[in-house]
Design brief:
CATH superfamily: lambda repressor-like DNA-binding domains
Number of strands: 0
Strand content: under 5%
Number of domains: 1
Largest sheet: none
Distance between the termini: 16 Å
Order of helices and strands: HHHHHHH
CATH topology: 434 Repressor (Amino-terminal Domain)
CATH class: Mainly Alpha
Shape: globular
Number of helices: 7
CATH architecture: Orthogonal Bundle
Amino acid sequence: MYSKIFTKRIEDLCHRYGLTSEQLLDKCGPERASVQELLAGKCADPEIQTLHRIAAVFQMTLAEFLDFPELNGYDPGDEDEESP
């Protein structure tokens, strides 16, 4: 679920800042592959350094990047309850 939440956040920020996903990936430097996996939904739990690198692209602190309603309202316990 985290990958969907972060993917949406990144897409929203790219739209707000006028960046394509390819431009974002180029700016992520050594974290490019990790960000690409996150955007493709192949990374369930992104590493903090990857999120930090993405935040830096948008000239945000990590705290600012992580402060958004979809993440703040997410309860990981709900996901566990739905699992078989």
